[in-house]
Amino acid sequence: MTIAVIGATGRVGSLVVEQLLNGREAVRVLVRDPDKAHRLFDPVGGDLDVRAVPLGDHGALSAALNGIRVGFIAMGSVGLEGNLQRLLLDAAARSNSLEQLVRLSVLNAGPSSLGLNQQGHWSIDFAAEALDLPYTTIRPSVFSASVLAGAAEIRSEHTWTGLADTGRVALSDHRDVAEVAVRILRDSTTWGTHYDLTGPRLVSWPDVTALLSAEMGETVEFRVVPDQTLVHRMIDAGIPPSKAELLITREWAILHGENERTTETIRKLLGRRPRTVETFLHDYIDNFR
Fold first, then answer.
1. How many CA atoms lie within 13 A of 237 on its CB side?
2. In what order do the strands lie in the sheet containing 194-197?
3. What is the pLDDT of residues 193-230, one digit of tens each?
4. CATH code for the domain of 41
5. What whole-number distance in Å separates Cα of residue 35 and Cα of residue 43?
6. Alpha carbons 242 and 117: distance in angstroms, whole number
């Protein structure tokens, strides 16, 4: 069985490819930058097929999916990536070989969420249902790795600037999410449903900076600023306006309490508890020093 991965060079996608190759699965990655894919995955070895596919080329997408039984998509839900996902869904619906499409989504995907990301993922789910695709989604809560976006500020100022000083999230570790994806891709008995993933307990952003302070042995404070101030800070730091808007609405959703729940899905699928925020911060502490 050859598994296709789209979004293979991202944080979750790259781990999925590595684990599949290490597990002796045949993997076909559909990428815009084949050189980057080769740099990442050639050292892993295994049965790897790198296909340079302009994701906006419907014919090329259909050809690249030929013979694929299972596909995995790990891409953004808004802007260009959201539109490319819809093209992928259409190509998948036309495939004669595809038995299951597994897509990385987000917790609380829905049309009434304050988060643009949640709204975007819901609209893609709606398209998949309309196309009657054989379909599974993995819906993690906000990643612990979100803290890495503040690493430069934390290193220079010992602060992390945001909006959500209240509201809590059971942060997901991206490594757990990748392991869940691999489990689902390889096990047909798990197909055809939606999996809500969270970390083991609810924390606020100030809780996270307190945990980071303990790990570093230095105080890191969470600093709250108005929406417009944060938008300008992000854009001045080189974040595209569309992504800045997405991050602002993510904070609104956190403040509103949309993420205040935990699930046992990781334990049920992997047979262990999910990684804690403390584990993530310990493993990635060099980014903050």
1. 15
2. 48-52, 26-31, 2-6, 70-73, 100-104, 135-140, 194-197
3. 999 999 999 999 999 999 999 999 999 999 999 999 99
4. 3.40.50.720
5. 13
6. 11
Phi/psi at 182 (5° precision):
-65, -40
Are 237 and 123 found together in one domain? Answer: no
pLDDT for the residue 143: 98
pLDDT at 55 over 80: no
* pTM of the shown model: 0.95
Q: What angle, 0 to 180 degrees and rounded to 10, lies between the N-to-C axes of helices 116-130 and 241-255?
A: 100
Annotate 23-73 with three-state secondary structure: CCCEEEEEECCHHHHHHHHCCCCCCEEEEECCCCCHHHHHHHCCCCCEEEE
The enclosing domain of 204 has a CATH number of: 3.90.25.10
pLDDT at residue number 252: 96
pLDDT category of residue 79 using cuts at 50, 70 and 90: confident
Q: How many structural domains is the chain composed of?
A: 2
Interatomic CA distance for residues 280 and 203, integer angstroms = 14
Contact 118, 254 (CB under 8 A): no
Which domain range does residue 20 map to? 2-141+173-197
263 pLDDT above the threshold of 80 = yes
